[in-house]
Each structure stands twice: as C-alpha cells, then as structure tokens.
Write a structure and sequence with these properties.
Layout lengths: L3 E2 L2 H16 L7 E7 L3 H16 L3 E7 L5 H12 L6 E4 L9 H7 L11 H8 L8 H13 L7 E5 L6 H10 L3 E5 L6 H6 L3 E4 L17 E4 L3 E2 L5 E2 L4 H5 L4 E2 L7 H20 L1
Length: about 280
C-alpha cells in the first residue's frame, strides 16, 4: 500500500480563496492585530507569513513588534488597548513569550470575542461544553483536512497522540463532536504503539521527530502529522516516520505542506468569523 497524500497547501488555498471572496462583499475590512515580543527567529517567519496571508484576503492587518525587555504589565496594556479598539476584530499574541512574561495571564487578558487563537479559557470551556465559538487554529485545520480527505468520521476510532492545551485536548474534543470514538495517548500511556495501531484516524502532535514508526500504523488508517521538527542536517520532519507510515496508511499528510498551511488559513477563518459576530 502507498498512502495517498493529503495536500494541506491545496486545501488551505481553497479556504483562503473562499475567505477572500466573502471579505470582498463586506462593507468593512476585518481587523487583525498580531503582537510579537522579542526576536525569536521562528516567530518572526511565522508572523510575516500570517501578515502576508491576511493582507492577501483583504484584511486590515498589522503586527505590533515589542522589544524583548517589554514587561508583562506593558504587554497587558497593549492587549487592553486592542480589546477596546473597535477596528480590531482579532488579536493574536505570538507564542512563545519571553520567560519573564506569564503566557497564561496574557492569553486570559485577550477579549474572548477577539481571541482568534482560541486559547482563552472561556473559548476552551465553550469547546469542551460542545458549544464552540473560536476554536484553536491547528485542530480546526486538521478537521478541514480530514473532511477534504474523505475520511469517514462518525463512529471511527481516533487516537490523538499528545495532550497539550493548544492541539491535543481541543483536537480530541473536535473529533468527539464529529462522533468519533476518541483515545488521547501521551507520554505516560503504557503502550503507545498498541494504542496507535487501533486508530482508523491518527493525529500525532508530540513534537518528537519521527517518533511514530510505520509498524504503529494500522493498514488503511488516515494519518495527520501535526509535528514539525528540524533535524541536525537541516531537514524538516514530522512526528511520524513518513516513508514507513506511507506503506501502511491509506492517506497521510506530508511535512512540510500538510497541517502547517492550514493553521494560518484557519486563523483567517477565525478572524472573519469574529468580525461577523462582533459586527452583526
């Protein structure tokens, strides 16, 4: 068996085209503000890509780049100003933040209706209660990819490998809402390989390069690799050993070009949804 590729670039491009078409009919431009603190190189690349994508679909988008020495109080003041700005529909505070700033306090300070990352405790609670409003972008993107791949979700055995607040837990909740039977596996799971082999849908989000081997994959499974890891030789790989897994899976996302493009596309989708909800 040779797995069919799930092309995240193509799915993301289609989603962005739809967003741009909707924005072109609006009497306003949805406003997105990204706040970046410090000089983390990966954050710099990601923020530039976000800003470019937002402008391409017609948003009023800008990045506020604050110095590394910005205090927590100063950052909270910036967030407060954006909360009160009627031109701003979406606020994203780029993570990671410098060690002297408590990320949880900053995330909780963002107005829930402008929390386009979907990380605010209120939005997390609404998702857990089955009443999603703004959903974390990466899990939301995974759901788009699963549906685009033709995967049958209702009744499927799904395994989420990883339990982070950003990906693993909201991912499990979205799969449950789609009527999957969901297992969340993690570092304390006794036999990770055995749990993964039970999956008809496997979502790997652990941040360990090529941890999931080919013999962890059930024949015919759909594999979504959220991980992106740079090796010593400069190559980018996922959490799944791609070539090995492709011999067993029916469909699989590549790294890069799988989940990554969907995260930005779903940020745009969240911003449009937030703008429509705020402005009636």
């Amino acid at each position: 068996m040779t797995a069919r590729l799930i092309d995240g670039k193509a799915v993301a491009a289609e989603l962005r085209r739809g967003i741009a078409a909707r924005v072109s009919t609006l009497p306003f431009r949805p406003g997105l503000r990204v706040v970046r603190v410090g000089e983390d190189p990966a954050s710099g690349v990601y923020v530039r890509n976000k800003d470019k994508a937002a402008q391409e679909v017609g948003f009023d988008s800008a990045t506020l780049h604050l110095p590394q020495a910005t205090t927590e109080a100063e950052l909270l003041a910036v967030v407060g100003r954006l909360n009160g700005d009627p031109a701003v529909d979406g606020i994203l505070v780029q993570l990671p933040l410098p060690a002297h700033i408590a990320a949880d306090r900053v995330i909780a300070a963002v107005a829930p209706e402008k929390d386009v990352d979907g990380f605010h405790p209120l939005n997390a609670g609404l998702l857990a209660a089955g009443q999603p409003r703004l959903v974390p972008c990466t899990p939301k993107g995974v759901m788009h990819l699963l549906r685009a791949s033709g995967a049958v979700l209702a009744g499927a055995r799904a395994v989420v490998l990883g339990r982070s607040q950003i990906v693993g837990r909201p991912m499990a909740q979205l799969l449950l809402a789609a009527d999957c039977t969901v297992t969340v596996a993690h570092s304390r799971t006794r036999d990770l390989a055995a749990e993964c082999r039970r999956a008809e849908i496997l979502v790997a989000a652990v941040g360990r390069p090529e941890m999931v081997r080919g013999d962890w994959i059930a024949d015919g499974a759909t594999v979504i690799d959220v991980g992106i890891n740079r090796l010593a030789d400069g190559r980018l790989v996922g959490d799944v050993a791609f070539e090995e897994a492709s011999a067993h899976a029916e469909a699989i996302t590549p790294v890069p070009g799988g989940v990554g493009p969907m995260t930005i596309a779903c940020l745009l989708e969240n911003t449009l949804e937030a703008a429509m909800a705020r402005r009636g």
